[in-house]
Give the backbone structure.
Amino acid sequence: MKMTRRDFLNVSTAAAVVCAATLLPVEKAAAAQQTLAAQNLLEQAYLYAFPLVIMDATRTASTNTRTATSNKAPINQFIHAEKLADATTRVVVTPNVDTIYTQAFLDVGAEPMIYGVPQTDRFFNVQVLDAWTNTAAVLETPGLYAITRADWQGELPEGVQRIDVPTTMVWTIARIVLSGQEDLPNVRAIQDKMQLMPLSAYQAGGWTAPAGSYDPANDFVPVKHVLAMDAKEFFDTANQLMETNPPAAADAPVLRELAALHVGPGEKFDDKALGLFSGLRWKLMLLQLKKKLQSESERYTRQMGQWIYFGDPIGNFGTAYTYRTMVALRGLGANTTDVAIYPKTDVDSTGTVLTGKKTYTLHIEADPPTLEKGFWSVTAYGESDFLIENPIDRYCVNDRSGLHRNPDGSIDITLSKEAPADTTNWLPVGEGDFHLFLRIYKPDAAALTDWQPPVVRTN
């Protein structure tokens, strides 16, 4: 039978409909898979680069000044804090209120920086972090140290110990334990004995620190600043930083994948690589980030009664990129576990979320076991991860607080918004939800296994 033109068109149309019906789901599935792959790669790139970008933002805010003050200083100069952190402290989240900080952001691109650690009678150490938030060294022994990029070649003066850091940007955090306001002069005496200067200045016999610069645009809270970046600003910043703060050799596999987004040293990011709806995809990723970080970082948690803390490889993250970002977001500059652990709880003994609408008792059966010069504290934070404003400016209780002990040596701490009749053992909290950090510095790891952690009970 001969097929007419109309018959041919009818058959062709029917075939096209069948093909469309057959292929459309496949195309949709392929498009969905492609979108998911792009989203996953975008998240991977963000999680990889976030610690580097927030470290740089913290450096920018902390060095945004012409002269050194108690909370800012130009690059390569000390920021000697003159008091403990309080509710106005907004540079880093979850600041501790046990130690006086002396910080410095260093640029070791041109030459090493000489760091002098004095002799002390108390807990004192200097954490040396690279640009990716890894702990390169912890300085505790008195002496002179040359903090330098690992690829620097040169001779050091006799008696100066070399500390290699793989990046040009370095953050040093010295922590000096304080025992009450009356102890401040002793802490300041220690700060006065600390030294910091370029190697060439040390060899020349002295140094007059140059003036820095100030830009009102750089007066920002680092974490808020980074989270507000769009994709182009974020990855442009990351790519530029990677030029002088190179990724580790172990990062090569992930960088090969991120090259598809033009993320890496020497790359030029183009947000067109994100495809259609890139802005929406970026915002969606940021909204989902907190949940993703929490779920993927759970494998690094360690249980301690009703408390949870993050264990190794904290401070030396390797390729644990999600974990590294979670720590940078929640507690930038966290110590390695041999120096300190930070158990946290946001619930009472029944698993109910802690809130300032209730009153609680924190029962400490026995002091956390620590090694020589170790100490402990309990600090309250609001939902923002900052300290909670209160009428007596008390943000933590610790082993130096002069707490009343029960006849058996245990301690009961009142957690409430309103002050009890006796405020000696009172830790104020706000009216909203809050959480607690139990800091244990120089923990005795062997003894911790048999120690009974504190319990939070609703009154």
In short: The longest helix spans residues 5-62. The mean pLDDT is 91. The two ends are 93 Å apart (CA to CA). Residues 343-458 form a domain with the Jelly Rolls fold (CATH 2.60.120.600).
